[in-house]
Write a structure and sequence with these properties.
The structure is a homodimer.
Chain A: E1 2-7, H1 18-26, E2 29-32, H2 38-41, E3 49-52, H3 58-70, E4 74-79, H4 89-98, E5 103-106, H5 111-117, E6 131-136, H6 147-151, E7 156-161, H7 166-175, E8 183-188, E9 196-201, H8 202-205, E10 216-220, H9 223-241
Parallel strand pairs in A: 1-4, 1-5, 2-3, 2-4, 6-7
Antiparallel strand pairs in A: 7-10, 8-9, 8-10
């Protein structure tokens, strides 16, 4: 019996790891987050127990994993992104460890880099950004963001968030002195076919997201301009060649 | 013709994405970094051109990719970790875009989370860390780290580095006022069978790495203690059950 805490990746089902996919294909029980691609759930064996997380609270999920693991099943807990990057995988790991249920973590591609990449934005770029800072803007995290410090942090800032929190996050950064002309992007459903993104200055970004949906991610920093330039060069070159 | 900039993941060949593996298996030319697992290079078709990066400079790699792409080949550029996280993927993308060669980025699992996870350390943990900061400690990056700011940054600090730079990085953080008792870990060859890690206080960590080899990654923050606790609970539970 083993419970595998597996990262499903950022949205595109092709971005699960080879190892993670193999585990899904041979599991006896699959417990999966709402944001996990249906194509991945469909990879589980026909006779596997399929349990959507849906409305279960974290403590209920922890208990469920312990129960399934204790029954001797091969259990895959499929989580969006990476289990150990704002994925609360640590809490599930503790619950399993305390119950004596063997577990392993199989990392996944985090939205952190993959979602900006889907909008042509590199997180780091020579001469532009050599530091990446990641925070969560979901109120659910229970933490208040330290805007004073974040506004002074060099490099690229990435905020995992629901779109409803965007105005307050932008206002917090601006009030703490972040340059209102800093390039910013919001990427919605990044890496999925229905992905969309908008770019603008930090001051205007919150006014540009009409029609975008959660999950979304905010990128703040000069790499956003690098991404726009990259997209423009590529488009120009293709136009010349066409 | 397309050049695919593909992340190979952090070391364990099973951590490449399903999409990346499929591209390697069907490519006509494979240009790969030294740190890429040999098992992945072996997945390329028998008649594919195999080109190790070896001693090529970045500008030479850029030129090579443009040449291979312009010849109409399906080219996979396989890079350690993720192409857009200290991977210089942006530079290769610009070279291709400027030459009018179509390209796509296929994200990979970055060492950022996967390597700490291999030592049971979550990057974030409820009530312990809700912020992750990533910098590169390779002198090759040409950037000087802003120790004053980093020492005051809350949450988890991750430094990609060669082991030779560890003493100066630790000294920089301590001189800037980072608490010498902050838990720290160095993970060497994380996610690989020969992976090793050590943990200690920030003040002592540089004295504990004898026998470890590059590539290595430094983690500084209370999540290191969470990882130690997790490993201890799991070991205790298994001992009780045995």
């Amino acid at each position: 019996m083993t419970v595998w805490l597996v990262g499903a990746g950022p949205g595109d089902p092709g971005l699960i790891t080879a190892k993670g996919l193999e585990l899904v294909r041979s599991c006896e029980a699959l417990v999966y987050d709402v944001l996990v691609a249906p194509e991945l759930v469909a990879e589980a064996p026909d006779d596997a127990l399929l349990i959507p997380r849906a409305k279960l609270k974290q403590a209920e999920i922890d208990k469920l994993l312990v129960e399934l693991g204790s029954r001797g099943l091969e259990v895959v807990r499929l989580k969006g992104g990476d289990p150990f990057v704002f994925g609360r995988g640590g809490e599930e790991a503790f619950a399993l460890a305390e119950a004596g249920v063997p577990f392993e973590v199989v990392p996944g591609v985090s939205a952190l880099s993959a979602v900006p990449a889907s909008a042509a934005i590199p997180l780091t770029h020579r001469g532009v950004s050599a530091q990446v800072t990641l925070v969560s803007g979901h109120s659910a995290s229970g933490e208040e963001l330290d805007y004073e410090h974040l506004a002074k942090t060099p490099g690229t800032l990435v905020v995992f968030m629901g779109l409803t929190h965007l105005p307050e996050i932008v206002a917090g950064l601006l009030a703490a002195g972040k340059d209102r002309h800093t390039p910013a992007a919001v990427v919605s459903n990044g890496t999925r076919p229905d992905g969309q993104s908008v770019t603008g200055t930090l001051a205007e970004i919150a006014s540009l997201v009409d029609g975008l949906v959660s999950p979304a991610l905010l990128v703040v920093g000069d790499v956003v301009a690098v991404g726009e330039q990259l997209a423009a060069v590529a488009a120009d070159a293709r136009a010349l060649l066409a």
